Amino acid sequence: MKKILFTSIYLLSLIMxxxxxxxxxxxxxxxxxxxxxxxxxxxxxxxxxSKPENNTECLEVDAVKFEWNTAQNTxxxxxxxxxxxxxxxxxxxxxxxxxxxxxxxxxxxxxQIISTNSTSFVAESDKWKFYLSGEPLKNHAPFxxxxxxxxxxxxxxTGSIQLSWTFSDIDSSDTHSFDxxxxxxxxxxxxxxxxxxxxxxxxLTDPGTYYWRIVTKDNHGASSDSGISSFIVLE
Length: 235
Known about the structure:
Layout: H1 2-18, E1 49-51, E2 56-58, E3 63-68, E4 76-83, E5 89-94, E6 98-102, E7 107-116, E8 122-124, E9 128-132, E10 146-149, E11 155-157, E12 159-166, E13 176-183, E14 190-195, E15 199-204, E16 208-218, E17 223-225, E18 229-234
């Protein structure tokens, strides 16, 4: 009798196993098949700036309204506005494509949008400039020159070194000249006055760190300072 009972239980167990009663190895509730991986996060795209337009005069009475186009794969935007005279930076982060910032009048500014999402990647927009006057001006100081080469912190060899920079001015009909300063202390030593081009080749044979800056002047007597940049001359 015991042998018959044991045989019956054994046969019943085999039937249950053959019918899948032992569970689903895939843990999918019996549906089976591979599980699709989550989609790969995409890098954010850079925003396209809209207003204030590049190299223009802004006459906002209170806060300046910044606008840009929607960037793909972006969840938030960081707006950086830099006073080009004081180098003070105003920053705000938003999920929208516009933001208002109150700025001090009578100064040139640059602005840029940084696009971000859940990834570690970021995308930087172009950098635009505008002059916040508050009221129409007959003449605007040129925007501070931007150092091109040697780039800040770059290392170069002794010998002939080309200094180069770019600049812009709202008043397109103005004429411009440049005062160049360079030394190994504080960029206070005049190298050239009323230089007429945006590059100059010099010879440096003494290794070390050099500091230099560009003062941009227009024909109305207005001027702007690039601020000090530095590079290293190797032995």
